[in-house]
Amino acid sequence: MRIYFDHNAGGPLRPAAREAMKRFISGGGEGNPASVHLSGQRARRLLEGARAEVALLIGAPPRSIVFTSGGTESNNLAIFGTLHDTARRRIVTSTIEHSSILAPIAELERRGFEVVRLPVDGEGKLLVNGNLDVIDQNAALVSVGLANSEVGTIQALDQFAQAAQNAGANFHIDAAQAVGRIALSVEESGCDLMTISAHKFGGPAGIGALYVRPGCSLAPLLLGGPQEVGLRAGTPNLCGAVGFGAAAHEMMTCMADEQGRIAGLSRRLLTRLQDSISGLRLNGPCQSRLENTLNLTFPGVLGETLLIALDLEGIEISMGSACAAGAVEPSHVLMAMGRSAMEARSSIRLSLGWNTTLVEIERAAEIIPRVWRRLSAVEPEAFSRQHAAEHQP
Amino acid sequence: MSARVLVAMSGGVDSSVAAALLREQGHEVVGVAMRLAPEQPQSAIRARRGTCCSHDDFEDARRVAERLDFPFYVVDLRDEFGAKVIHNFISEYLNGRTPNPCVMCNREIKFDRLWQRAAALEADFVATGHYARIERDETGSFHLLRASDGSKDQSYFLFTLGQREMARTLFPLGSLSKSQVRALARTLGLANADKPESQEICFVPDGNYAAFVAQNAPLERIRPGAIRDSSGEQLARHSGVHQFTVGQRRGLGIASSAPFYVRTIDADTGDVTVGRRGDLVSAGLIAGMVRLTRPALLSCDEIPVEVKVRYRHPPLPSTLRILAEGRAQVRFRSGGPAVTPGQAVVFYRGDEVLGGGIIETGLER
Fold it and tell me: How many C-beta atoms surround the C-beta of residue B139 within 10 A?
């Protein structure tokens, strides 16, 4: 039995999504929603049905939802799309964002935009006091994540929304990790743009959406046909949209129960681990955190070795963000939270999801301390040498 | 016997076939690629595309693991490699010596740090694609032997292995020839079967060691000086001793009808002494950081051995005497070549590696 604790990277399909996609594929899957004929009409109905379900999940009007290929495309569209005809030269973001925000904004910095990256405190919360002055008449875009993928910290973004509105800047929220885990309303959040993604809450990978507030001026990244009200050319991923819609529909009915159940399992696992591993540290706040996310610093071992050892024992977790070659870099999020590179290297992330069971929690609570003890018995010498190597001038 | 074996995989054909053979023998193979060299500076567009660590070699190794269906991981040993191997490489050149980073990497990384990881992962053995053999005698003692394929033998780089390391190390290719290995790779359908061998030092891919040292050394440690002949007369100036190797002929910048060779390098004064070919011979050498593969050897007073003073040099009949403080003296039976401080000297008896060390000085005739 393999235990999958990596839902923040992307979880398995919910049965509802799987069934809906199966039905779609066994029906032939034909039809382009842009076609005039009956197959086209059927496809269009499915696409618009899915759009309505997704819109409902974040309290948005259906026509404000633009389907994309996922969170990364949504973030790119929001960031590049809002800067097409503005004289404003400043972008405000934070130090702990996902790479699909960091990289587009770094590119814009190279093209001459001024970028302000707001710092966070030791729990990953944005430091707001005195830092919001940068959201002024020169600010074109404020782009921040609602819930952090690595540590789960949930930001209070009201002041950002207010400041952006006062300054006339576009306000973009990356809610890819938050959607399906906490109740969301685009109205209440006061955002102009919101990124969501299907595969973080049981939909398929390869589809996401960008909420675009009606009236918000946005330029497309992909040019071609008039699909998605001209904001995203190309025949839509209909099968993905069907799965996305089904997953969203299920979330509307079960989110509160499901999140309560996952929070209980997560707390149980944390308690069991803390009882058996002295010095174990939870990164991120106790309150205002995605409770499915446990980012933990294990004293005296390398996260990289722990990750491999647990994988060989059947527990799948992750650490920071893996690079293209599969090696792991120390997490920029933990470093921004003030952890040393060594602490970041000793940290791993467990993220639970809709299919996590009590049996898995009990099993993990037995395996993880055993593996940690084994590693800390073998590695301390190597660990201290690695430490010395890092501190060599 | 089925064991868990951690296989160090480079993406080349040798380590891939080593992994395949172990899998075939029924072992539980865990493939590991080591990230060692720091990032190379690259063009802006490549950096922007985020290809910093998508080394093709790792992808080759990953494909082999997928094909043969065993788990594969990349481990990050850049800090240790930088501190132990690259740091040593630079400081040796600055001290007027010519280091052998592969020996250091085997000693400090592959058969030390990687072993720590293996133990943490409950692996019984570490395996590599080296061409060398380990045999166990009836007393339970391990012997490090040359590979069956003499032209590929890599035992020279492995002399730092002791009994403890050999007990937990496997060299599946030790009895095979390179062409057999390539044929096996083709039979197994491995995509890298005909991949050319890597020749350069992995962290200096362009092979320009002097430029690498100059770029990475503190400026005040670069030692310029004079090129002198045996009588002490200055023939030319040079911009740093790190550009020279004992025995070197090319690139001295001296106009002469007959070629000059570097005889000595003095990093304190910056003097590089050159001579004619005939001046280069030495009677033997003193080595430091000596390791022996079998402790029993220590008790012998004078040991008849053959030594290799460079990887590609033929073995020289010699007499070995172990000195105090990890040193050893080697006397060549007949006249030997110039020895290059910093390079490894390896002691052989027949096919067996008895040990080796790092050359400190040559002995005058």
Answer: 6
Residue B226 has pLDDT above 50, yes or no: yes
Burial of A42 (0-12, 13-18, 19+ CB in 10 A): middle
Rounded CA-CA distance B65/B61 in Å is 6
Q: What is the mean pLDDT of chain B?
A: 88
Best of B63, B112, B117 to disrupt the A interface (most A CBs within 10 Å) is B117
Rg of chain B, C-alpha, whole Å? 22
Q: Both tokens of residue B136?
A: 């166990």
Please tell me the total number of residues recorded for chain B in this structure: 365
Q: CATH fold of A15-250, please?
A: Aspartate Aminotransferase; domain 2 (3.40.640)
Q: Angle CA(B91)–CA(B230)–CA(B89) in degrees, nearest 5?
A: 10
Please give the pLDDT value at position B53: 40
Phi then psi for A122, rounded to 5 degrees? -65, -15
CATH 2.40.128.270 fits A3-8+254-384, yes or no: no
Tokens at residue A16, please?
Answer: 């509802």
Tokens of A83: 């800067």
Is the confidence at residue B305, as pLDDT, over 80? yes
Instruction: Residue A326: list chain B partners with CB under 8 A.
Output: 58, 62, 73-74
Q: Exposure string (b/e) for A234-248, b if CB count within 10 Å is 16 or more?
A: eebbbbbbbbbbbbb
Is the ipTM higher than 0.90? The answer is no
Which homologous superfamily does the CATH classification assign to the domain defined by B280-363?
Translation factors (2.40.30.10)
Residues A59, A186 contacting (CB under 8 angstroms): yes
Say if the Cβ atoms of A392 and B48 lie within 8 Å.
no
CB-closest option in B33, B54, B73 to A324? B54
What global pTM score does this model have? 0.89
Residues above pLDDT 70, as percent of chain B: 93
Tokens of B305: 């051995």
β-pair type (A193-197, A170-174): parallel
